[in-house]
Design a protein that fits this description.
- The structure holds 3 protein chains of 3 kinds.
- By secondary structure, chain A is of the alpha/beta class.
- In chain A, 41% of the residues lie in helices and 14% in strands.
- Chain A has 11 helices and 10 strands.
- In chain A, β5, α4 and β6 form a beta-alpha-beta unit.
- In chain A, α2 packs parallel to α3.
- In chain A, 60% of the residues are buried.
- Chain B has a domain of 84 residues.
- Chain B is 48% helix and 14% strand.
- In chain B, α3 runs parallel beside α4, α8 packs parallel to α10 and α10 runs parallel beside α11.
- Chain C is of the alpha/beta class.
- Chain C has 3 domains: 52 residues, Orthogonal Bundle (3-methyladenine DNA Glycosylase II, Chain A, domain 3), CATH 1.10.15.40; 252 residues, TIM Barrel, CATH 3.20.20.20; 125 residues, 3-Layer(aba) Sandwich (Rossmann fold), CATH 3.40.50.11600.
- Chain C has 17 helices and 17 strands.
- In chain C, the strands form 5 sheets. An 8-stranded parallel beta sheet of chain C has the order 10-9-8-7-6-3-12-11. Chain C has a 3-stranded mixed beta sheet with strand order 13-15-14, sandwiched between helices. A two-stranded antiparallel ribbon of chain C has the order 1-2.
- In chain C, β8, α7 and β9 form a beta-alpha-beta unit.
- The chains are: A alpha/beta, B alpha/beta, C alpha/beta.
- At the A-C interface, α7, α9, α10 and α11 of A face α8, α9, α10, α11 and α12 of C.
Chain lengths: 312, 261, 452
C-alpha cells in the first residue's frame, strides 16, 4: 500500500496585525511552521531589547557589547539596527520603576519620542515591574507616539482598562494583552480588551514566558492550547498574534547569571546565556510565537537563520 | 471535539404566521423569525414547509433562496416529507456556510432520504423509528442499525447522519425519559452523532416551565453524548445551559465572559 | 492499519446475540473500533477475525528499547501529539557523532566533551546517552577500534553503529552486542541481512530511505520479514525537511492510526549546521516535536544546559508536576549567619524563589520541607505546608546545628502560619516575607541591611 500523508484540518486563522509602517505579524492558518498543511502566514519577527537607562544589572559579557551606546537609548537602538538588523526595537522603561529611578511618565514620553524619531523600524514599548506605573507611563508615551501602530507591552488584568483606553482607543497604538501563563485569563483578557472597543486586528498577546528548564512546559502547553483553540476550534478570541519577551526571562536564570568563577565547570558564561536565549526563543517559536524579543546579537543571528530555514 | 450544534425550530408551518407567509410567498415574516434566531446564536435554521404536496418543488427553492440571500453565513435544515421538494431545495442551496441537513429519514417509508443525502452530499437526520414512536430501545437501536447499513451501502459516511432517538413528552411519558437518555448514550457510544427535538419534551407544560425542563433535559442528554438539538434559540436559559455544558465538556476554553460570546 | 466500525462489523458473526453486552453486532463493532472494549467479549468470533482485530487494536506507536544494564532506554510509545492531551512518555536521547574519518585529535576532544557534561538537575542525571559511529572509510578494523576507544573512554554511552555494509555491521555487533547498540543502516538493498543481524542480537534497527514514501515501503517489507524493533529515518538532513518528516511520521501513527509509521524517529541535527548554536536551535525544535534520538556533532555546557532542561520540562507528566528534593539549599556563599527562607517543594516555585535570591546577590539558605509538591497556597490549603512540616524539616536537616540564625523567612501569602511555626519551633522568630517572589530581591537587601 502506498504512503498516505495524514490530513489535519484547521478551521481558524490568526489575525494579521501590522506593526509600525509595514511589519506584519500572524496570518497563519496552520500550526507553527506546518507549511505542509497550508499557509504559515508571515515570518515570525525578531526584536532587540534596549533600556532607557544603562543596563547595570545585565551580565558583564552582555554589557560589554553595548557599553559605548547604552547611555543613550536612541544611539543604542541605532547601533542594534545598523549592526544586527532586527525587525523591531523593544524599548523597555526600566528607569520608570518606583523602586529605582522612578522616572516620570513625561520624561519617558520624551525619551520614547526621541528614539522613535531616530529609528527606521517599529518600536515595542515595554514597562517596568509596576503595572500601576506602567499604565501612567504607557498613557503618556502612547500620546507622544500617537497613531504610530507601535506595540505596548503590556496590558494586564489590573490595568487593561487604562492601558487599553489610552494606547488602543485614544492614541491609535497596539495593545499587548499579558496573562502570565494562564490560559483562561489569556482568553478573558482578549475578550475584555475587545469589549473596550479595540479591534481584534489591533492587538497582540503575551501569554507569559519563562526560560527553558523553569516551568517551560507550562509555557509550551499554554501556547499549544491557545493555538489549537484558535485554529481547530476557530476560537476568534484567541486568533491573536503572540509576542514573547524571551530575553526578560532568560537573562536572569542561573545558567546565564553564574559567572565563570561561580561555575567554572560550565565554561563560557556568554555562550551559556546565548544558549539559554536561543533555546527558549526556538522553543516558543515552535509553540506558535509570532515575535520574540532578544538581547544578544548572536542569538538574533541564529534565531533569524532558524526562522529563515523554516519558512523558506 | 466540535461544539454542540443548535438547530433553530421557529420557521415551522404549524405557526400561523409562517404558514400564511409561505402561502403568500411573503418573505418578511420568515426573515424576521430567521433573524431573531440567528442573532440568538442558532447554528442552523430548520425550514419546515409541511407536506407541501401541491407546490413543494417550487416552495422549497423559494424559501431557501429567500433565507440564503439574507443570511449567507447560516446553513439550513430542510424539513418536509416531500422528497421532490427536498431535492429541488438542495439544488438551489449554496453550501458555503455548510452542508444542508435533510429532516428527516427514518427506518420505514422515509429511508430513501438516506440515498438522497448520499447523492447530494448532504447531512441527514435519521429518526430511529419506523412507524410511530419506537416501543423500546431495542427497537431504537435496531432502526439505527438499519439506517446505518443503508447509509454504508449508499456511500454516506456516518458523520453525515444525526440520529434522532425521538424525544418524548414528559407530561404523559415521564416513565420513558430515562430510556430515551439511555438510547442517546448507546448511539453515542457507537461513535455516532445524535440530535432530537427538545420542545417535544416540554410539550403541553406551562409556558414558564418549558425552558427549565428543556434546559435540564438537554444538559442531561449532553452528558449522555447528545451532539445537537432542534431548539427554540430565543430561550436564553436553554442557550446558556448549552454553552455551559459545552464548557464543561471542554469543547472550548473557559473565560469569565464566556456567555457573552 | 486500524479498522473502522464497518470493517470490524464484517468480521463479526452478525447474529445480534447480545452476549457481548451490546444490543447489536454493529454496536459492538463501533465500540471495538474506538478501542473501548475487548474483542474477547464476542464468543463467536473466528480465530482469523481475532488475529486481524488484535493487529488493529495494538497501540499506535511501538515502544522500543536499546542499551543495556543501567544504560537501557525506552523510546516511542507515545499516544498523543500534545502533552496536555495526556503526557509524553519517553524522552528523546542525545547522541554525539563520531566517524572513522575524524582525526584522532577530534575524537579525543569529543570524548573529553562527552565525559565533561555530566550533572544532576532535579534528581535526573544529565549526560549524553549515545555515541553514534559513522563508518565512512569501509575499513573494518579502523571502525571497530574507533568504537572500542570511545566506548572504553565514555562508559555511559551506548553505541549507535552506522554502516550499510553488512559485513562490518556484523563484526561491530559481534564485538559490542552486549552494550545493546543501535544498528543503523537497514536500506532497500541490505535489509534482509540487517534484519537477521538485528533479530539474532535483539537490537534496535535503524531503517533509512530517501523520503517518506520509500521509507514506508521499506518498513512494510521489514515488518513482513517479522521485525518490529525499528527506528525510522526518512533521509532528510536539513532542518525544514526533517521537521516535515518528524511531524508527518508521528501524525501518520497517531492520527491515521497507521502502524507502519508507528515507530520512533531519529534527527541528524549534526548534518543541519556547522554552528553549534544553530544545532542547539534545531535540537530544541526536535525535543518539542517529535524526535526520539537527536544526533549532535558535539556537546558542551552551553548547549547541554538548555537542551537537557528543556527535555526535562517537556517530558514532565502534566498530572505530576516536578518536585524538588527536600533539604536545605545554599545560594551563593551563604554562611551560618545568612538569612534562611522556607518555601515549598514544587519545582517551579523553588526555581522562581531561588532565582530571585540569586539575583539579589544576598547569600542565603532555602529550606524545602515535604509540602506535597504543591504551590505555596495549595500546599497550605491541603495542610502540607504548616508548622509541623516546617519544624520537621528544620529537625531532619539539622538546621539548628548548621546555622546560627534563629529567624525564618516565610512566604508572605502564608503569613497566617507565623504563630503556628513559632509554637512548633521554640526559640525561633518567624519573619513574614514578600507576597510575590519578584519583590524578594529588595526585601532581602533591606533585610540584610537591617540585620547588619
Amino acid at each position: 500500500m502506498a504512503y498516505k500523508m495524514p490530513v489535519q484540518k484547521y478551521s481558524g486563522k490568526i489575525n494579521e496585525v501590522t506593526i509600525g509602517n509595514g511589519l506584519k505579524l500572524g496570518g497563519e492558518s496552520v500550526l507553527p511552521f506546518y507549511s505542509f498543511d497550508g499557509d504559515i502566514g508571515n515570518k515570525p519577527a525578531i526584536g532587540m531589547e534596549i533600556w532607557d537607562i544603562y543596563p547595570e544589572s545585565w551580565p558583564k559579557c552582555l554589557q560589554e557589547i553595548f557599553k559605548d551606546v547604552a547611555d543613550d537609548p536612541a544611539k543604542w537602538a541605532n547601533f542594534c539596527i545598523y549592526n544586527y538588523s532586527p525587525d523591531f526595537i523593544c524599548l523597555k522603561f526600566e528607569g520608570a520603576s518606583p523602586d529605582g529611578l522612578d522616572r516620570s511618565p513625561e520624561e519617558c514620553a520624551e525619551i520614547a519620542k526621541k528614539v522613535a524619531e531616530s529609528v527606521s523600524v517599529p518600536l515595542v514599548i515595554a514597562g517596568c515591574q509596576s503595572n500601576e506605573k506602567n499604565a501612567k507611563v504607557f498613557t503618556k508615551v502612547a500620546e507622544a507616539l500617537a497613531d504610530k501602530n507601535f506595540v505596548f507591552l503590556s496590558a494586564v488584568e489590573s490595568n487593561y482598562k487604562e492601558v487599553g483606553a489610552a494606547v488602543g482607543m485614544a492614541y491609535g497604538n497596539i495593545v499587548a494583552a499579558e496573562s502570565s501563563v494562564d490560559l483562561n485569563l489569556a482568553k478573558q483578557l482578549n475578550i475584555l480588551i475587545t469589549q473596550l472597543g479595540i479591534k481584534p486586528d489591533r492587538m497582540v498577546m503575551d501569554p507569559g514566558c519563562s526560560a527553558v528548564g523553569y516551568g517551560f512546559e507550562y509555557v509550551v502547553t499554554t501556547m499549544d492550547r491557545i493555538r489549537l483553540a484558535a485554529l481547530q476550534q476557530n476560537d476568534t478570541t484567541l486568533q491573536v498574534p503572540m509576542i514573547l519577551p524571551v530575553s526578560f526571562e532568560t537573562w536572569k536564570v542561573k545558567e546565564s547569571v553564574a559567572t565563570e568563577d561561580d561555575a567554572p565547570e560550565w565554561g563560557s558564561q556568554e555562550e551559556r546565556a546565548v544558549g539559554m536565549e536561543i533555546s527558549t526563543a526556538v522553543g516558543v517559536l515552535g509553540a506558535g510565537a509570532n515575535a520574540v524579543i532578544l538581547r544578544h546579537p548572536r542569538s538574533v543571528e541564529v534565531v533569524r537563520n532558524f526562522i529563515n530555514q523554516m519558512t523558506e | 471535539m466540535a461544539r454542540f450544534l443548535t438547530i433553530g425550530e421557529r420557521i415551522h408551518v404549524i405557526s400561523p404566521t409562517i404558514r400564511k407567509a409561505l402561502e403568500e410567498r411573503n418573505p418578511e415574516p420568515i426573515i424576521k423569525r430567521a433573524r431573531e434566531q440567528v442573532e440568538a446564536g442558532a447554528h442552523y435554521l430548520d425550514v419546515n414547509i409541511g407536506p407541501a404536496d401541491r407546490d413543494g418543488e417550487e416552495l422549497m427553492p423559494w424559501v431557501v433562496k429567500v433565507l440564503q440571500e439574507e443570511f449567507p453565513d447560516t446553513p439550513l435544515c430542510l424539513d418536509t416529507a416531500n422528497m421532490k421538494a427536498l431535492e429541488a431545495g438542495i439544488k438551489v442551496y449554496d453550501r458555503k456556510p455548510g452542508k444542508p441537513i435533510i429532516n428527516s429519514a427514518d427506518a420505514g417509508a422515509r429511508i430513501d432520504m438516506i440515498n438522497l443525502a448520499a447523492e447530494y452530499d448532504a447531512m441527514v437526520i435519521g429518526l430511529c423509528a419506523k412507524d410511530g414512536i419506537p416501543r423500546d430501545n431495542d427497537e431504537r437501536i435496531m432502526y439505527c442499525t438499519e439506517i446505518l447499513e443503508r447509509a454504508m451501502e449508499a456511500g454516506l459516511s456516518q458523520e453525515n447522519i444525526l440520529f434522532d432517538p425521538l424525544f418524548v413528552v414528559i407530561k404523559g411519558m415521564q416513565d420513558k425519559q430515562q430510556e430515551v437518555l439511555e438510547a442517546v448514550r448507546q448511539i453515542s457510544e457507537m461513535g455516532l452523532y445524535t440530535t432530537g427535538g427538545l420542545s417535544n419534551v416540554s410539550n403541553g407544560c406551562p409556558r414558564e416551565l418549558r425552558g427549565l425542563i428543556e434546559a435540564t433535559f438537554c444538559a442531561m442528554a449532553i452528558q449522555c453524548g447528545l451532539t445537537s438539538a432542534i431548539i427554540n434559540p430565543l430561550d436564553k436559559l436553554v442557550m446558556d445551559v448549552i454553552k455551559t455544558a459545552d464548557l464543561i465538556k471542554e469543547r472550548y476554553l473557559y473565560a469569565d465572559s464566556y456567555l457573552d460570546l | 492499519m486500524a479498522l473502522n466500525g464497518m470493517q470490524i462489523y464484517k468480521l463479526l458473526p452478525q447474529k445480534n446475540c447480545k452476549e457481548c453486552g451490546f444490543p447489536t453486532c454493529l454496536a459492538f463493532a463501533m465500540k471495538l473500533a474506538q478501542g473501548n472494549v475487548e474483542a474477547e467479549k464476542c464468543p463467536y468470533m473466528s480465530d482469523d477475525a481475532k488475529a486481524k482485530l488484535s493487529e488493529a487494536t495494538a497501540p499506535p506507536m511501538r515502544t522500543v528499547k536499546f542499551g543495556a544494564g543501567d544504560f537501557e532506554y525506552a523510546l516511542g510509545g507515545e499516544t498523543v501529539l500534545f502533552r496536555h492531551e495526556k503526557t509524553f512518555v519517553n524522552r528523546p536521547r542525545f547522541a554525539v557523532m563520531f566517524s572513522d574519518a575524524m582525526s584522532s585529535d577530534e575524537v579525543d576532544r569529543k570524548i573529553k566533551n562527552v565525559n565533561e557534561v555530566n550533572y544532576t538537575r532535579i534528581s535526573e542525571e544529565m549526560h549524553v546517552e549515545i555515541a553514534a559511529f559513522k563508518c565512512e572509510r569501509e575499513d573494518k578494523d579502523a571502525f571497530i577500534s574507533l568504537i572500542k576507544k570511545v566506548t572504553d573512554s565514555c562508559p555511559k554511552v551506548v553505541p549507535m553503529i552506522m554502516t550499510e555494509n553488512t559485513e562490518i555491521a556484523e563484526e561491530a555487533v559481534r564485538q559490542f552486542g552486549d552494550k545493546g547498540p543501535i544498528l543503523f543502516g537497514a536500506n532497500d538493498q541490505n535489509y534482509e541481512a540487517m534484519v537477521n543481524l538485528a533479530k539474532d542480537h535483539k537490537l534496535l534497527l535503524g531503517v533509512t530511505a530517501a523520503g517518506k514514501e520509500k521509507l514506508y515501503e521499506l518498513v512494510e517489507k521489514i515488518q513482513k520479514a517479522g521485525y518490529k524493533e525499528l527506528l525510522l529515518d526518512a533521509g532528510s538532513r536539513n532542518l525544514k525537511g526533517t521537521f516535515d518528516d518528524m511531524i508527518n511520521i508521528r501524525r501518520t501513527a497517531l492520527l491515521s492510526g497507521d502502524r507502519t509509521f508507528g515507530y520512533p524517529t531519529v534527527a541528524f541535527v549534526c548534518d543541519m549546521a556547522q554552528d553549534k548554536m544553530m544545532q542547539l536551535a534545531c535540537a530544541t525544535l526536535f525535543v518539542e516535536k517529535y524526535a526520539s534520538i537527536i544526533v549532535l556533532s558535539d556537546i558542551d555546557y552551553s548547549i547541554a544546559l538548555p537542551l537537557f532542561a528543556l527535555r526535562q520540562n517537556i517530558f514532565t507528566d502534566p498530572q505530576r508536576p516536578m518536585r524538588i528534593e527536600q533539604g536545605i539549599y545554599k545560594i551563593g556563599a551563604a554562611d551560618e549567619e545568612s538569612p534562611l527562607l522556607v518555601t515549598v517543594d514544587f519545582a517551579l516555585t523553588y526555581f522562581i524563589v531561588s532565582g530571585e535570591v540569586e539575583r539579589s546577590k544576598v547569600p542565603a539558605w532555602i529550606l524545602i520541607p515535604d509540602a506535597g509538591g504543591y504551590s505555596v497556597l495549595t500546599a497550605w490549603a491541603a495542610g502540607k505546608f504548616n508548622g509541623k512540616s516546617i519544624a520537621k524539616a528544620v529537625k531532619e536537616f539539622e538546621v539548628e546545628n548548621k546555622l546560627k540564625t534563629r529567624e525564618l523567612i516565610i512566604p508572605g501569602k502564608v503569613a497566617v502560619l507565623k504563630a503556628d511555626i513559632e509554637d512548633e519551633l521554640p526559640g525561633w522568630k518567624v519573619v513574614v516575607g514578600t507576597e510575590e517572589a519578584a519583590t524578594l530581591t529588595n526585601f532581602l537587601r533591606n533585610y540584610k541591611q537591617a540585620a547588619s
